[in-house]
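Predict the 3D structure for this chain.
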Amino acid sequence: MSDLPTLDDAENAVEKATGLIPWLADPKECDNCGTFCEADTQYVGHQAAYTDVWVCPNEDCRSRYYRNRE
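Done. Predicted structure below.
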């Protein structure tokens, strides 16, 4: 019976899982509404090019952020 997970294991599962996929970027949290954004590639008119962006999935917000900017 000692192989069964405990309640403490379940509470700490998220902390233990971080870093399992190091190349997967953490999603950006929208500055306007707090929703986690989705990764996308969209045409940016003032750059006249397709650019990697974070897009807020919230229909009322739809904010867009550049992914490769510090």
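Helices lie at 7-11, 13-17.
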